[in-house]
Amino acid sequence: MQFSELQNEINKNMDRYSQHNNITVDENWAVLKLLEELGEFSQSVIIHRKQSRPEKYLPETESKNEIAKELADVIGMAIVCAKLFDIDLEEALNKKWIKRTS
């Protein structure tokens, strides 16, 4: 799957989510949701490293799966934010991470 196809599928999924839950997905909501997902990602890393309360500990494989799910949420919400802010994310990634000259 090409990056643009991935972005389109993620944004279609967000459209379905917003309709199903009667949520207006605007820039403010998306940024707050991105922060929420980043917090959940951070929490999953803390649990994985066993730096949380012992009752939250999970087996290694399960905790790593939780990290993967939460990281996917962060990336998905970043893609939604890019659409809402009319940013070509593929171009921005290329400029910032791939073709950077300095």
Question: What do these coordinates show?
Answer:
With 102 residues, the protein is mostly helical. Helices cover 75% and strands 0% of the residues.
Shape: globular
The overall pLDDT average reads: 96
Helix-residue proportion: over 70%
Q: Which structural class do you get from the secondary structure elements?
A: mainly alpha
What is the distance, rounded to the nearest whole angstrom, between the alpha carbons of the first and last residues?
30 Å
Count all strands and give the number: 0
Q: What percentage of amino acids are in beta strands?
A: under 5%
Tell me the Rg in angstroms: 16 Å
Low-confidence stretches: none
SSE order: HHHH
Q: DSSP helix count?
A: 4
Q: What is this structure's SSE topology?
A:
Elements (H helix, E strand, L loop, with lengths): L2 H19 L5 H22 L11 H25 L4 H10 L4
Helix pairs in contact: 1-3, 2-3
Defining key terms:
102 residues, mainly alpha, 4 helices, 0% strand, globular
In short:
This protein has 4 helices and no strands.
